[in-house]
Design goal:
The protein is 45% helix and 18% strand. The chain has 10 helices and 7 strands. Helix 1 (4-15) packs parallel to helix 4 (90-98) and helix 7 packs antiparallel against helix 10 (238-265). The chain is globular.
């Protein structure tokens, strides 16, 4: 049975030896370093777009919920914000310090943030609530809105393929459809400024679908998303694993190159993630 704290603690305990970037424990733990670097690049591009949409002023007090190894806290500081990070896992916070995160870091759960009301001008949740079981997601979102100042901005990046009854019991991804994410946050007292799709990666997703079909039968999208890089058959068969990642070394850059055009042509709901920007109601 999935336990968020145990899951992330286990990743933190072995993550410092995987890659020098610190991306493996917070992105795809078993994927090659080049893959996580590419995904991080795509996410950073999306975050910059969300910041422009949110119109966050320089010097804003900025909370990153589920800060992990501190990549967004460090970047927010570099962009001129007064950044603070919070994470439920002590091991992740230790790694954040090891990766030279200078900003304040605090231990705490997303559904029980250790901050006073209206403490921040802006808040980000980058693929965090999607890893919280459904029954706790609303509480976490309410907490995020609570710690924002009236008129403060809230940026979410989450998986948007929707709830699926076929999700495995050991799943660590709990997605919603875009309208459900928007509705959940609006019920907490914030209004949508805008949203867009992120990570279409159409050619690569097609390859993953073929690989999943060949090795393990047809998978639902959530299981594809969380196991595309850790399928047991791939780990056991080193030759298949090498071929799989050699092919993805072609499809991922190709997909990333086409991403700007795909974003303009395709509906945002076709992406794997949605990036949502909200304003807390006055």
């Amino acid at each position: 049975m999935y336990s968020p704290k145990e899951y992330w603690s286990s990743l933190a305990s072995g993550g410092d030896s995987v890659d020098a970037s610190g991306f493996a424990p917070i992105l795809h733990p078993l994927a090659p370093v080049w893959f996580n670097l590419r995904i991080d690049n795509l996410q950073f591009r999306a975050v910059r777009r969300a910041l422009a949409l949110a119109a966050v002023p320089s010097g804003a007090r900025f909370l990153d919920v589920g800060c992990g190894t501190g990549r967004w806290v460090r970047r927010y500081g570099e962009l001129g914000f007064s950044a603070v990070g919070v994470d439920a896992t002590i091991g992740m916070l230790r790694m954040a310090r090891a990766y030279a995160t200078k900003a304040p870091l605090t231990a705490g759960l997303a559904q029980s943030l250790p901050f006073s009301d209206a403490a921040f001008d802006c808040l980000s949740d980058i693929t965090v609530v999607q890893h919280i079981p459904y029954e706790l997601q609303s509480k976490a979102l309410r907490e995020m809105v609570r710690v924002l100042k009236p008129g403060g901005r809230m940026m979410l990046m989450e998986v948007i393929c929707g709830k699926d009854p076929r999700i495995r019991k050991d799943s660590h991804v709990f997605p919603r459809e875009p309208r459900d994410w928007i509705s959940e946050v609006e019920h907490c007292g914030a209004s949508l400024i805008g949203w867009f799709g992120q990570e279409f990666l159409l050619a690569d997703r097609f390859l993953v679908h073929l690989a999943q079909t060949f090795f393990g039968g047809r998978e639902n999208l959530v299981n594809q998303f969380q196991s595309a890089y850790e399928h047991p058959s791939f780990r056991k068969a080193s030759v298949a694993n090498r071929i799989y990642w050699q092919l993805r070394h072609i499809t991922v850059p190709l997909s990333a190159w086409a991403e700007p055009a795909v974003e303009r042509i395709c509906p945002p709901s076709l992406a794997t993630h949605g990036v949502f920007v909200f304003r807390k109601n006055l």
